[in-house]
Here is the input.
Amino acid sequence: MSWTTDPRDALRVTADFDLATFDRASTPGFDGDKAEAEALMAQRGELMAELQERLFAEGREGGTRSLLVVAQGIDTAGKGGIARHVMGMVDPQGVQLRSFGVPTEEERAHHYLWRIEKALPTPGRIGVFDRSHYEDVLVVRVDGLAEEAVWRARYDEINEWERQLVEAGMTVVKVALMVSHDEQGRRLMERLDRPDKRWKFSPGDLRTRAKWDEYQEAYADVFRLTSTEHAPWYVIPADKKWYSRLAITEILTRTLAEMRPQWPVPDFDVADMRAQLATSMSDDALRLSLEDTRESVEEAIAQSVDVRQEAIELRGGERREERAKALKKAWEADLEATIAQKKRILKDRRG
Ligand code: AMP
Ligand code: MG
Here is the structure.
C-alpha cells in the first residue's frame, strides 16, 4: 500500500489551511507513482463496489442511509473524470449523478436549495453532485448575481442545511478539485486544439478564467466557512489527474468502510423457500444446482472475508482475525446446512 497518510487527514481542510500556497501538483499522503496509483485504484474499486452494493441492499430493506459526494472545481479541474473513472467502478444502479448548471427560470423562481434538495440521493444510493449549492456562493458571488448580504448569509444556511441531511442519515463528503492556473490554461488549450474536445469548451470558460483571483478568494471562503465536522471539505490537488482520482477513490472507500454497510438479513425462511423452489425443479436441475453449491458459495465467502478484512484494515480496526474467522464459520455452517437440505430433498424424491 502506498498511502503513507489517510488522505482524509492529508486533504481535509483544517483551521490553518491556506489555499494561496496550496500546491496543486502535489500528491499528499501518497508516495507511489502513476502506475502504482492505477493499480491501487483498481483494487480499491472492487472493495468500493462491494461496499456500495451492501449499502444499496440495505436501502432496499428499509435502511435510510445514503452517501452524498459534492464535487466542486472550476472548468477542466476534472469533475467529469471523477464521475467517469471513480463512480464508473461501481454499479450505475446505485449511483445518482446530478450536474448543476445555470439555473432555469423555474429554478430561479425558487430558493437556491430547492433544485439541490430534489437531487439528493435516495436511501442506499451514492449521490454525486457535479457542481452544487456551492455555486450559489461561488459564481453568484464572483459575478455579482446576488447582493453581498444575500450570499454572505448562505454559508451559515448551508452548514445548517447539511447538518440536517447528516442527522437524517446522509453521509456528506465534499471534494474540491483545485487545478493550477497554468494547468487550466493547458487543458483549455487542448479542448480548443482537439476537434473531439471542442464541445467541452465554452467561451464563458475564458471569462471565468479571467476572474481567477476572485474565484480563488471565493473558494477560500467556502473552505474557511463551510468545512464542518458533519460535512468536511477535502481539497484535492488536481494537476495530476491520476492523483485526484486515486485520492477521491480512497476517501470514498474509507468513508464507505466506516459506514459498515451489512448484507440485510432476509425476512423470510430461506430453507422453506428452498424447499418450495425445489418442488418446481426437475431432478436434473436440482442435481446440477447441488453440484454447483459448494463452489459458488465458497467463492462468495472468500470474497466477503477479503472485503471485510480490507474494510477493517482501512478503519484501522483490531481483532481482524477473529472477526473474519467468525464470519467465515457462520457462512460455512450455513453452506453445510444448504448442501444437507438439498441432498435430503433429492434422496426423498428417489425414495
Ligand atoms: P459546466 O459545469 O461546465 O457545464 O457549466 C455549468 C455552468 O453553470 C458553470 O458556468 C456554472 O458557473 C454555472 N452555474 C452553476 N450553478 C449556478 C448558479 N447557481 N448560478 C449561476 N450559474 C451557475
Ligand atoms: Mg464547463
Observations:
- The longest strand covers residues 170-178.
- The chain has two domains: 7-259, 270-350.
- The chain is about 55% helix and 10% strand.
